[in-house]
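> forwarded from #structure-qc
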């Protein structure tokens, strides 16, 4: 093969890889809209019994709400991939090397949020039931308010409101050191 053909094949291969990756990224989250059309313009503004959580005991044959894409695993992935960690510092470990940088760790904890999945599959009535700190509570609430439409829960063949208590895990990880800012214009010149 000529060198130009090899170069062209390499370029086409790279373009194909980029295109496949973009398609995969889109397909990864395509399932989130799975139940959007199921309920159309549904509005659940009537007062009715709420099963589960801190409300009423859930009957045995109740079908729980289903997160798009397959339930608990996808729900956990959604929460984990949407966390934006606030910089809440737990501890600072001094460097073991002279002149080295200290290591800063974020606080860890679990925020428990109760949500009610209404008869239209929408997450409503978000409420923190166990707090860690204000920043983590706000982040957990932000995630719960951004949830996609679920398949609504059911009891005796009728859609019902169901309360769920969701743990949002904040793991203890290291904060990346911020690069030291250098002001290039604040120096004395010999020129």
């Amino acid at each position: 093969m000529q060198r130009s053909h090899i170069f062209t094949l390499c370029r086409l291969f790279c373009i194909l890889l980029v295109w496949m990756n973009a398609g995969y990224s889109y397909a990864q989250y395509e399932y989130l809209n799975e139940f959007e059309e199921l309920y159309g313009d549904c509005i659940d503004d009537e007062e009715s019994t709420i099963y589960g959580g801190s409300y009423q005991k859930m009957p045995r044959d109740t079908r729980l709400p289903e997160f798009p894409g397959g339930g608990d695993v996808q729900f956990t992935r959604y929460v984990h991939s949407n966390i934006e960690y606030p910089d809440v510092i737990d501890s600072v470990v001094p460097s073991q090397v002279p002149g080295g940088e200290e290591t800063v760790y974020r606080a860890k904890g679990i925020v428990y949020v109760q949500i009610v999945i209404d008869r239209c599959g929408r997450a409503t009535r978000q409420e923190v039931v166990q707090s860690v700190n204000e920043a983590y509570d706000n982040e957990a609430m932000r995630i719960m308010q951004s949830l996609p439409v679920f398949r609504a829960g059911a009891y005796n063949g009728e859609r019902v409101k169901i309360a769920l208590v969701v743990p949002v895990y904040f793991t203890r990880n290291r904060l990346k050191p911020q690069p030291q800012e250098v002001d290039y214009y604040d120096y004395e010149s010999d020129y």
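QC bot note: Confidence is low (pLDDT under 50) at residues 16-26. The beta strands are 50-51, 89-93, 103-106, 109-117, 123-130, 153-155, 158-170, 174-175.
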